[in-house]
Amino acid sequence: MPGSAKTMTVATVGGLVLATAYTVALGSNGWLWFSWVVLGLLTVGVVLARG
Fold it and tell me: Keywords for this entry (predicted)?
């Protein structure tokens, strides 16, 4: 996996951890989860394009 794809994967996993922690602490936020889904789709796209 190239460096940029690895960086995006780490950012996506970190975003998932942060979104989950935010949801547990303060309640659900639809925009937060929507943003994470968009980041996840971008990451999948980068991984497939670089693969």
Answer: Membrane, Transmembrane, Transmembrane helix
